[in-house]
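Z., the sequence and structure:
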Amino acid sequence: MGSAVYIAAIAIGGGMFNLLYWLFAFLRMGTSGITAQAYGAKNFDETTLTLVRSLIVSALVGILLIALQYPVSHGLMRFLKPDSDVVDIALTYFGIGIWGAPAFLGTFALSGWFLGMQDSKAAMYVSLVINITNISASLVLVYICNWGIIGVASGTLISQWVGFAVGLVLCRSKRYNHHRPIARNIFDWDKLRRFFSVNIDIFFRTMCLVIVTLSFIRAGAQQSSTILAVNTLLMQLFLLFSYFMDGFAFAGEALAGRFIGERNNDRLQQCIKALLLWGALVAVVFTLIYAIGGQGFLSLLSSDMAVIEASQQYYLWAAAIPLSGFVAFTWDGIFIGATLTRSLLLSMFTASVVFFTIYFLAFDLYGNNALWAAFLSYLIVRGIVLTLRARKVKV
């Protein structure tokens, strides 16, 4: 499994799933906001019904993806355009892994529901179980059973279903004031209309995000393999910061939704101010770390000195990411908790237009600097639009 072809195939197969599942992130985000509001209102019938609706949708989407696996996999393969010796192995990986789609999407729904129920520990436990099972099963199947790529894919598949099962057990075993749902209430038209309205907005928002992200990667690849490597390296700084900011976003989803459900505007506004303050502090700390760390910090992420040296002229753009993006990341969670998803879609669409406008107008003159300027402008505009619409976040 140390072969470059196998490693590339796993990377391509994993990238196919990331791209595919990313579009269905609404199953987590939409569920958390609606559940948190019902929890705050102590409407435990509705918290249970929201979970059931989300699990039904995740199961239907998962089954549909399995049924359409051939056109989906070959369509993604044409888009990603890997080397020919990688294609068959990557398709084998995808063909096995796709059978975990209902479990993976169901875990999305459960994670969002746990957050809405103010129980982030349960979501963390499920994530730990999935990762530990994936590593353990893959090691056994690859190195003991000698299954190769089939073992890697099967290990991932097993971990997804085990994680989903653990999530269901946690859901049943914890004291969540469950009420047995009545079938006709599950399909209540007004509730379903709100459920799908929220999730459709998040779906199209995610599409904008995916398009910008893929365009950024593609623009780097079109310049040269060195620039692609430089941008990939510098984007690790963005990912590292975003992982920390996700904690504030999750808190915003859970707490904003809860206080809106409780009709407690004072605590809601206190929560918003606290999240923005702490987000700003984290952004300042990360900016200082990135500014002081410089080449030494990049050396921790890569051993390729040629790429590290080439990244120096673009490093300041990456160092500016925390201050450019913290407002957008923080508001994202708050607006999801408030289920003001149309504002999220508007901010992402506006920011995407700004990204492509700057890119197309400046790229020929300024090259990769224009690409980074477009990306940072995209982050800033997301935060500005949501700040301008913050008056909507109220009880």
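The chain has two domains: 4-187, 202-392. Residues 202-392 form one domain.

Let me know what you think.
H.
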